[in-house]
Request: fold
Amino acid sequence: MTSKNGPSKDALSETTFQAIEGARSELVEVSLDIHAHPELNYEEQHAAALLSRTLEKHGFQVERGVGGVETAFTATLPGGGGDGPTVAILAEYDALPDIGHGCGHNLIAMAAIGAGLGLQANLDKLPGKIMVIGTPAEEGGGGKIRMLDGGVFKGVDAVLSSHPSSNRTVIPTDIPLGESWSLAMVGYRYIFHGKAAHAAAVPHEGINALNGVIHLFSGIDSLRQHLREDTRIHGVITDGGRAPNVVPEYAAANFMLRCRDRDYLSDVIVGRVLAVAEGAAAMTGCRLEVQDYYPFYENVRPNAVIADLLLNNAGMSGLKLDEPFSGRQGSAASTDFGNVSQALPSYELRYAVSEQPVASHSREMTETATTGFALDAAINVAKTMTLTACDLLLDPSLLAAAKSDFDKRGQA
Reply:
């Protein structure tokens, strides 16, 4: 779709595909370079510098360290067609501990840069402004949350992003208003302070902090059956004592709390788990300390209008689509893209990177993220996002419809 006086979709497609295919070798090189230099959240110095340099080389106006986040950036180009909206494409590029790019963020970065170059090729026909926004620390650090708070998304009208998704590419368009895609998530560190003593000679003089953590786990296990079925609570013991003949005076566990409804998470789950922790401390005589550990990740608010545009453009871009499974769509994971989707019309296109199922956050996905299949898919995703961004920039009615859908889902 285009505006009545705008360029035809065929003309946009031809220019887009030529630009992205012409940059294919560079895009693949960028993706493999990021993959070969995995960096944890907020440590993505190599990736942020590489992506910024690449966009700058192609004429984008790059600003580094935006929103007070050192490894974040914006890359901007004004359209040549006069005033209009701003559409942003998001790049992610942080890795996971030990397994590297087991979530395929190197492919997300590649697709975002590709879409930026595709839009640049059509710039003389486009009103408004295009942006590629580098968003670090998706894996638990909440980079987008800090960037939202820092005003980086101010003035942006719509956002597109992408994410590897095993062996299926699905773009559902029939989305019930109350449906949530992904789990809202928040994390806490529960610390138990006890009193050290000789575990054999005078154990009665000690207060066992590890017992507090153990009771916390037991209490949460008992709590699960009394919480909604979409609730997920999972944690690890990070500190449990250093020697078995010393009563542990310090023990701690980190927990993630999740569910599809951010209100149920904040108003019910957080308080119920805190009550368990307080009970564990009372049972053992420990002093409880609770620290924020993961920022509050909102659940993803889908957008049926943007989904429909992506669906139409995917076929033109060579992106093979699968039929959605019946029932609720979206992901059972959590992402700070959810916070963006709750702030403005947004869509994250999830696409197949393998012919066979491959689990996210696995060593198999780390290997998959460098295959020809995955790299080809990211190229086609870049084309799809480019054409969708063109639709939103050129036809004011489409952007208005996307905003209307966003508002309705916020009230559902």
About this structure: DSSP finds twelve helices and ten strands in the chain. The beta strands are 61-64, 73-78, 86-91, 129-134, 158-164, 184-193, 232-239, 250-259, 287-297, 346-351. The first strand starts at residue 61 and ends at 64.
